[in-house]
Write a structure and sequence with these properties.
The protein has an eight-stranded parallel β-sheet with strand order 7-6-5-4-3-2-1-8. The chain contains nine helices and eight strands. The protein has one domain: TIM Barrel, CATH 3.20.20. Bound molecules: pyridoxal-5'-phosphate. The site of pyridoxal-5'-phosphate has 14 residues, from strand 8 and helix 9.
């Protein structure tokens, strides 16, 4: 399926007055789709699976900013550390420590977001407020990671007021933390996907992660 470049351009137009960065979520989509967007000078791409990300990264030489947005297992961290631009999905101190350790080995400082659990679904990963504070306090001794902000996924529902209140909560949390000295690097609030990015932007998102609106529906059966 071809990339919907008209849709892409509309979204870019829509986001630019608010200074919101678009991450094109290319998971399960072929390298050709990424190249179609690269041809439009788009550089930020999001992937969920380590092996898929590595396969794609090896096939495309361009200077892409690869965002890791899926659940990350500690034993796979090492593989993405040399090139990853931003990890959106830090959901435990153990994971952050592993990122720090692997980054230290190659003398990199890796930018990370802390994933906050804001949805009602049990299945979505993320930290609660207590865990968030613990990890932020512990992070000051980790010199090879830089915490740039928060990421969250709202409940998958048609109830827009529910989604809005979850994003509102995340924005409040972000503002509260940003005021702390430990959070001086905060400049990124990653919230909003194809179905709810307009609400997320209204509620103060600085980065949206959009897949299906740009690349078409994903078919997990063939990927
Ligand atoms: C797949 C995914 C997206 C994009 O989803 P769409 O609904 O296709 O825009 C965004 N964020 C995360 C964490 C994802 O896993």
């Amino acid at each position: 399926m071809a990339v919907r470049s008209d849709r892409y351009k509309e979204i870019i137009q829509e986001l630019s007055p608010n200074n919101v960065t678009l991450i094109a979520v290319s998971k399960t989509k072929p390298v050709e789709d990424i190249q179609s967007l690269l041809a439009l000078d788009h550089l930020d791409f999001g992937e969920n699976y380590v092996q898929e990300l590595i396969d794609k990264q090896q096939q495309i030489i361009d200077n892409i900013h690869w965002h890791f947005i899926g659940h990350l297992q500690s034993n796979k961290v090492k593989q993405i550390i040399p090139f990853v631009h931003l990890i959106h999905s830090i959901d435990s101190l153990k994971l952050l420590q592993e990122v720090n350790k692997q980054a230290q080995k190659i003398n990199r400082i890796v930018d990370c977001l802390l994933q906050v659990h804001i949805a009602q679904e049990e299945t979505k990963f993320g930290l609660n407020e207590t865990e968030l504070n613990e990890i932020i306090n512990a992070s000051s001794s980790l010199k090879h990671v830089r915490i740039k902000g928060l990421m969250g996924m709202a409940t998958f529902t048609d109830n827009t007021e529910q989604v809005r209140s979850e994003y509102k909560y995340l924005k409040q949390l972000y503002d509260k933390l940003k005021a702390l000295p430990q959070c001086h690097s905060f400049d990124t609030l990653s919230m909003g996907m194809s179905g709810d990015y307009k609400i997320a932007v209204e509620e103060g998102s600085t980065m949206v992660r959009i897949g299906s609106l740009i690349f078409g529906e994903r078919n997990y059966m063939v990927s």
